[in-house]
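[job 4471] stage=fold_predict status=RUNNING
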Amino acid sequence: MATVLKVFDKWKEFLAERVSQAGHAGMSEETIAKLAFQIGEFLSNKVDPENEQERLLKELWDAGDEQEKQTIARLMVKLVDKG
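[job 4471] inference complete, writing structure tokens
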């Protein structure tokens, strides 16, 4: 279980770095949210979840309509954007 959490924490750390870089590059929150949505679509369609957290996110993503997916994307950005 600790390994799974470390992997998920690494993924969140990676996402946080990318969100920070996008903000420093002058991208608006709306643009960052749109990119997060596009990344979510790509991951859902092309990447097999490797742990329970990723599987849960995929299942939530797949169950949602477009507006709900946009909410998930915004929440993921908010989750990692602590600055």
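[job 4471] summary: The chain has a mean pLDDT of 85.
[job 4471] exit 0
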